[in-house]
Design a protein that fits this description.
Structural class: mainly beta
Oligomer: single chain
Radius of gyration: 24 Å
Number of strands: 25
Length: 381
Amino acid sequence: MPLYCENHRAAIYDRGGRNIMGQLENITKVQWERTRDDVSIGSVTVAQPSKGCLDLLKSISANRHELVIWRGNERVWEGPITHIGRHADVFDISARDIMHYVYRTAAHQEWDSSSRWVPDEKDPNRVFQDNTEPVVDRAYNMLAAELGRAKENPSLVDPVINVVPYITKVRATDISQERNANRRTLAYGISVYDDMEAMATYGGMDYTVVGRRLILNDNRVVLGRTPVLTEADFISEVVVTSYGMDSFTRAITTGDEGMYGVAGGVDPFYGEWENIEQMFDEDSLEAPTQNALDNAASYNMYNRLPVPTIVRVPNNSRLNPNGTLSMRDLVPGVIVPVRASLVSIELIQDQKLNNVSVSETGKEGEVINVTLGATSASYLE
């Protein structure tokens, strides 16, 4: 079913998103997002509230209550309120999605998913200890334990934040092919959110929030695939571009004390173009192993040859509400095939949906913008 245009409404709920405190009235502006590997923002502006609505607005508190937004009859966004602006007869309410609870949670225990040599009293030689686990499992276990310690503990917090029940792991058919986390962090040395960010940046994991659901997946695992889009699905220009800066023939990753990994070499057509990247994660206690360096170099060679030619949809392109997609298709991380026929060149390429932003005002009505990014052709099914 196409997006069409819908009207939004919003309400205030108590922490956990179960108990409604009241509906907001006289909303003049609504904005909300869905974004991959980041915390999204939702906000509403209320002007000239009625007495009942004003009483509701006076009763809410940042860090206790939540903003919930509907698009038509679909509950599309929710999260804890972080800002309340009051000026004259206008109220501005901003909130962050449920990952904000994670953002404000420290890791109270050591989390060891590393492989390393450790001393052994019975053996003068060290022994190799392998605690690695799929990156998705490390993330889930850390979230469940650290949130469960207080924020999901009904003996300490009432009501609880109600996040862990909605964490969803999307797995490959063969879990052994998913990337393993090779990280060790000490108690009180990092926030849970920073660990999630590190795994998203270095460890091959994606996360995204849709409503109250937190989705975790290896970034090569397909969350879903939308119908093929064309220029008609965007109220903006679609561009076909070749990116020489995204291409090289040899990838080199460096570690500590002269260690390095290499993949690729000299190409018969392109010659030699080399790229060096340092494997560095300031939150990890262990230096990268030779195997990790080699794997990172091999991974960096994905889609580097031939020079990538990409169907590019400019960032924050506006979707045609009468186009192919529905709101349920717009989950950051899904694969979006895009077809372009420009200047005698016809290409169809997979893109990954990175961000969705939605706004509605009385003047412009509803506007939906998306940001797509090129993605690897190597998927885990």
